[in-house]
Design a protein that fits this description.
It is built from eight helices and five strands, in the order αβαβαβααβαβαα. It is α/β, with parallel strands linked by helices and 221 residues long. It has a five-stranded parallel sheet with strand order 3-2-1-4-5. The termini are far apart.
């Protein structure tokens, strides 16, 4: 499936005077740069920064601060920015036994699920806490598909699986996964240009110690 085409179909039907609410999981400022500039005119966006895969608290909060800085510099219109407390143990527990898997394999699949499920859970909690109008269209999504190294099909499959598995049966809430492959239409290229324009810190590894180790090995080879 061409998820970019599916996204464009949804965007074409949005009433900009009655924007849907989007809970957007963000992994870092560079990846979010294009995605936010692309989607801000279609959605009221709540950014959710939850990335327990990142190997150290210093790196975690560095990426969070860079995200805040970009939003301010670029004048991105958002509803809220949520930065979760750092807890690397959540990631390590999720991928226990998968430490020696290759980058992009089963370990990454579990990591995607962890972050997307938490985004979905946060969306529900936010709706209940803030008495969000149940008739309003609500989506959740992630910036992860902008990376050429990330499997967009897998990310979309996981997102849809979560949305379908935890769909409300009593009509109390209806949260859909927003299909995406943000690297399409030069999305990744534009994100690189925006990173350069705003002087964003671009990390050279996804986040976890296992991805960092693979970068070191590949550079050595």
């Amino acid at each position: 499936m061409n998820y970019q085409v599916e996204l464009e179909k949804i965007l074409s039907g949005i009433d900009k005077n009655n924007k849907p609410l989007l809970f957007l999981h963000v992994c870092c400022a560079p990846c979010s740069s294009y995605v936010l500039t692309y989607l801000e005119e279609y959605f009221d966006i709540i950014i959710y920064f939850y990335n327990p895969n990142i190997d150290t608290s210093d790196e975690y909060y560095k990426r969070a601060r860079e995200l805040e800085s970009f939003i301010g510099k670029a004048g991105i219109r958002i509803t809220n920015l949520i930065i979760e407390d750092y807890d690397h143990s959540e990631f390590l527990s999720k991928v226990h036994g998968l430490e020696h898997e290759i980058e992009g394999g089963v370990r990454c699949k579990e990591c995607f699920y962890l972050r997307l499920k938490r985004t979905f859970d946060f969306a529900i909690h936010h709706m209940w806490k803030n008495n969000t109008d149940a008739s309003r269209k609500i989506y959740f999504c992630t910036t992860l598909s902008i990376s050429p190294l990330k499997n967009a099909n897998l990310i979309n499959e996981i997102g849809n699986k979560i949305a379908n598995a935890y769909k409300s049966t009593d009509g109390e809430y209806d949260i859909e996964f927003l299909p995406s492959d943000f690297k399409k239409n030069d999305g990744y290229k534009i994100s690189c240009e925006l990173s350069k324009k705003y002087g964003l810190y671009r990390q050279d590894f996804c986040g976890c110690e296992f991805s960092k180790k693979e970068v070191v090995v590949n550079d050595f080879v």
